[in-house]
Amino acid sequence: MPDKETVVHILWINAGLSCDGDSVALTAAMQSSIEDIVFGTLPGLPKVDVHWPLIAPETGPVGSNDDFIEWFFKGARGEINPFVLVIEGSIPNEKIKKEGYWSGFGNDPASGQPITTSEWIDRLAPKALLVLADVEALLVYGDRNGGFECFIVPIDACYALTGTMRRRWKGFDGGEQAWNDVDAFFDKIRERSQTAPFRGQLLRNGDPRPESGG
Predict the structure, then answer these.
(1) Distances in whole angstroms, Cα of residue 152 to Cα of each of 132, 136, 162, 190
(2) What is the pTM of this model?
(3) Calpha distance 2→20 (Å, rounded)
(4) Helix (H) or strand (E) holding 138
(5) Cα separation values, 12 from 117, 162, 186, 200, 213, Å
(6) How far is C-alpha 95 from the chain's CA centre?
(7) What confidence tens digit (pLDDT) does each residue in 78-106 have?
(8) Which of 51, 113, 132, 205 makes an SS bond possible with 71, Cβ 3.0 to 4.6 Å?
(9) Burial state string for 136-165 with b = 16 or more CB within 10 A and e = fewer than 16
(10) Which domains does the chain have, with CATH numbers?
């Protein structure tokens, strides 16, 4: 744990695929707020310097005097220590395409080409004090009988469900085939899941029951 005089840099990349839920939650939080963290009003918290596109005052292009991305280059060069790397959104696999890129964050001054999110992770993760990644989501299933179930799943499971619905959904209510596929999707999720306690009880189909089964 860094001492109170050490400045911990937060290098936050929100250039993952399609998910800004952490940014939305953090900017809306009240206890504690992002202002409390940035201005150091929380007792025992080390000093932090947050480099995050949502609140960064720097807006200039790469190489300018107002270059936001320069903090990430400094981290890759080992010029800031310690720093925490935050990756928001799912991480794309850049090896499964023939050309182009899935997701980028700033440009390489040498080539002028975008630096992919995956390349930033390769550059920064080995030097980071800690790496935090948004890799899970809460998936809520409301069945056709009025019950519901909650699952903590990998983000790619959410993409798989979205793909299933896009392929099958017809009209206003989706159609019978779409719902059959959704039911089958959650059957597979359920097979791989373990039931977790919910405030001393088990929650299944919206019906809280004691852990003992009584």
Answers:
(1) 17, 7, 16, 11
(2) 0.63
(3) 28
(4) strand 136-142
(5) 11, 27, 33, 36, 44
(6) 21
(7) 999 999 999 887 777 888 888 888 888 88
(8) 51
(9) ebebebeeeeeeebebebebebbeebeeee
(10) 7-133 (3.40.50.700), 136-210 (no CATH)
